[in-house]
Design goal:
28% of the residues lie in helices and 26% in strands. It is an alpha/beta fold and 243 residues long. A hairpin with an 8-residue loop joins strand 6 and strand 7 (82-87).
């Protein structure tokens, strides 16, 4: 069974949920970690679930189970809050992805979230030029226009695999709206430039400022983004989130 552990109960004003989960080139994960690092954040909740992989992560000799962390932030130019969510893994099975997605969306609805945003990777073929564009898809045409107006190219066809697609797509079933933005990449372990492109797009859409000059250096300091002997769930082994 899944369980939310509250560390505190902040008063949230019209929050936007922004989730960055591990995956191809760790693009969304790094973007979320950097937002948490640069903004004045408070971790207020943790989600533990049997649907995460059966891993114990060690840091400096201490074992920790997989969980999802939720942080509250209020960038200086915003009149509403951000809920920043990240984890060390996505759910290990398709059923688990649906269950966890539903629980996260119920949590978001409970706290008055209006928009659900996910950040992920769009893998280009080897013969395509790497132009560092951001692509995306949204739950409704108005949000699609917002993406397009802020330089995000709209996807036409294919599927966004995993929770990165499910969270914004199923947000509408709970009266919320959502979109996914994906940084173009050639893949690999870590692509900080793709994370940077996504963060620039989000800055443009939501109107907050964040200094990105430390992003690449910060990426090197995150031990959980370095190579690991742990095997990722099978859906992560696909060449792209887009099918």
């Amino acid at each position: 069974m899944s369980r939310f552990n509250y560390l505190c109960r902040p008063r949230l004003k019209r929050p936007v949920l922004i989730a960055g989960l591990p995956g191809i080139a760790n693009i969304g994960k790094l973007a979320a970690e950097y937002l948490i690092h640069k903004l004045r954040t408070t971790k207020f909740a943790e989600l533990y679930s049997e649907h995460f992989p059966e891993w114990a992560i060690q840091e400096n000799g201490t074992l920790k189970t997989i969980k999802m962390d939720f942080f509250r932030a209020r960038p200086s130019k915003l009149k509403h809050d951000l809920i920043l969510a990240t984890a060390d893994a996505q759910a290990a099975t398709p059923v688990g992805q649906y269950v966890l997605t539903g629980e996260i969306l119920d949590f978001a609805k409970k706290h008055g979230v209006e928009f659900v945003v996910t950040m992920a990777a769009y893998v280009l073929s080897q013969n395509e030029p790497l132009n560092r564009t951001v692509v995306g898809a949204a739950s409704d045409s108005e949000l699609s226009k917002l993406l397009k107006d802020n330089g995000v190219s709209l996807l036409d066809g294919g599927m966004i695999v995993g929770m990165n697609g499910l969270l914004p797509a199923l947000a509408a079933s709970r009266g919320m709206r959502g979109f996914c933005v994906l940084g173009t990449t050639k893949g690999g372990l870590l692509d900080a430039r793709a994370s940077e492109a996504i963060l620039r797009a989000l800055q443009s859409m939501f109107g907050f400022d964040i200094d990105l000059r430390e992003l690449h250096q910060h990426a090197l300091s995150l031990p959980r983004l370095k190579p690991s002997a742990l095997k990722l769930p099978s859906f992560e082994e696909e060449p792209s989130y887009i099918r």
